[in-house]
Amino acid sequence: MKDGLHPRQVEAFDAVVQTGSFTEAARLLKITQPAVTRLVRSLEETMGFKLLERGAGGARPTRDGALFHRHVEQYLLAFRQLSLVAERIRSGQEGALQVAAIPALATTIVPRAVARFQKTHPGALVRIIDGASHEVAEYVGTGVCELGFATAIAQHPNVTCHALPRVRTVAIVPKGHPLAARAEIRPADLHGQTLVAFRTGTAAREQLDAVLKAARAKPRLVLETSLASVAAACAASGVGIAVLDALTAEAVKGEGAVVLPCTSGADAAYALLVPKHRALSAAARTFATEAAAVMGGKLKLR
User: What is the model's pTM?
Assistant: First the structure.
């Protein structure tokens, strides 16, 4: 590879991949279309292989371009995190406890842990950053956050994962629904029922699909979302049945929904993420301990 790789080249390539168009990429980056073309062409010359191919349907990455783009996404995420670091330094909040969490935990376990933490650290500032599991791992691995709460599949070379107590799976059933009178919901009961679920490709969705397939149950999917809280709210509004973790379900108990045990066996597995090569601060250790206690467990941290 030739020397001379520049961030603007990478941003231009990513913008074209995201929009599928050189024109839309130019609009997104607020530059001219010829400028985008030049940046991508110079990046291809630097890399030594073709990144994009144009067709009637727009621009799309080549095989090599798609492989390269996976790493581009990680690079841009880390690059954009620099603004968070700069803001932290600029605002004089270097001492704040930075915690990253997926939305399902940022709205359930983390707030309760903060309340417990404040009793022993009344003057401490806790800053919560939400994101997907791979983003949470990146935040902790790059030092932006000291602690992370994510699904158990989250990985990063600079992160150590500690398993948190598993959370049982429940079914959120709209009040008045024929299944609302059941003592529990089995996967087979969902056959033919309207279902609210996580979007395709997520670990939770794959797990649910496997359970339904084993039970030969074919529900009617009416809504997909990436947020557990949205799925719970939709179920409570009568859109359909949602199979979620018990923590999220607590927020909609009595609000148009019945929360019932679900015998899916697909309990939610979460993890605490900590830096692998840096010792935790006393505040972070306390916060992690409180979070585990909220979930009914204990942690053994180095």
Answer: 0.62
